[in-house]
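Incident log, entry 3
Record: Sulfate-binding protein (463 residues)
Problem: checksum mismatch between cached and fresh output.
Input:
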Amino acid sequence: MLIRPPRTTVVSQTHQAATQLCCCSCPLSIPLKCSGQKQLLIRPLSLSITASSVNKRVAPRQSRKPNLLEALLQRPGILFATAAAGSVGLIALIAKLGGGGNSGGGKHKSGGGGGRDGQGPSDHAAGVAGRDDEDKPKLPLVSLTLVSFAVTRKAYHLITERFVKDYQAATGQQVKFRLSFGGSGTQARALVDGLPGDVVALALPLDVQKIADAGLIDGNWRERLPNGAVVAESVVALVTRKGNPKNIRGWDDLIREDVSVITANPKTAGVARWNFLALWGHRSKKGDAAALDYVTKVFENVPVQPRDAREASDVFYKQNLGDVLLNYENEVRLTNLSYKENALPYIVPDNNVCIETPVAVVDKNVKQRSSRTRDATVEAAHAFTQYLFTPACQEHFSDSGFRSIDPKLRKASKLPKVKDVWKVEDRLGSWAEVQQRFFGAGGVLDDIQRHVGEKRRREREGK
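Fresh output:
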């Protein structure tokens, strides 16, 4: 039985890391009962929608693009913006889209399809379309796969849920999401190797550019969206043990011989590359030789390199390994929330790197749909990426621990102030130069890893 049963549309969300779209790795048609996969049925905080509320709101579309715009323009209270992406009109849904309760039972009201207290379809959504629409042809279901990095799970579960409701309320178009989370570098390689992703939201521009270089994303991806396609920001945080027994105060303490450092693997995790760049940038003003010596000493203190930011948290919090953890500030905050009374203190050092998390439509993949769904898929994918820049979505990012790009939210944020936050391009050169110099084959990272490996081999041999 596939995911469109007669009376219910079930939206599956991936709960596995890396490249799996579900636990049995079924890539496109996810069964309704997939062994081990969590199914989201009709409950608050799910992406499920009832067929009764969907079918009655659907109107026939004679010409897709004009009707998409008309549907948005005709809804009261809508603010919208358009941006060019080829010949496709992009829609950003900014305000409330109807009269239901809140989005999925959360605290940020979106109105569209929330029902009473977000418990189900509202009377408006279920009945206003009228009996005349019941026999009209339905728009084909659009299925989008969002491929993102590990620590965005909370934000994108909420945002995709909200988009499903808002987009259907505005256009009549049903959208279903599949979500895949894992290390950013791993996700980028999986997409290049054939993972069927339609939208990517990765940890750093380098990973999106790799997909573009493979011909899957148009070369102008950074110009198609606001803020250079960066939807949220963060900084590197240093997590210590309770009471900070090693008295770790900042970057310079990471090279002490009595300090054990946990950071993820730069080969697989975006966070680890940001950590690397933050470390290098801390000493770069003293010259490349000083920066190389400093970063090498830090990596000599790293006993293990987990696969991604979430696994790094598990190693530090659950396995109690290491004296200090380098991780995204947003990941640290979410982890501390889950650990409650066992939360750990953290420091946000000054002279910190601005972590930029970009998003892009995977153009080649969305255009490979059948003629029946191609236009609708392209429109929905571009509308979703625009939607991420709306105030409502920026609130979700902020609530998930990110530093919002929205000026009002940034001003109201209670996150620690950082005196000197610098961008990679301003201090270390273009991303292409950074990739070649630090992370490419035979680059600085490879040299450091080789040195550390040889040193440990000699230590094991007693030399």
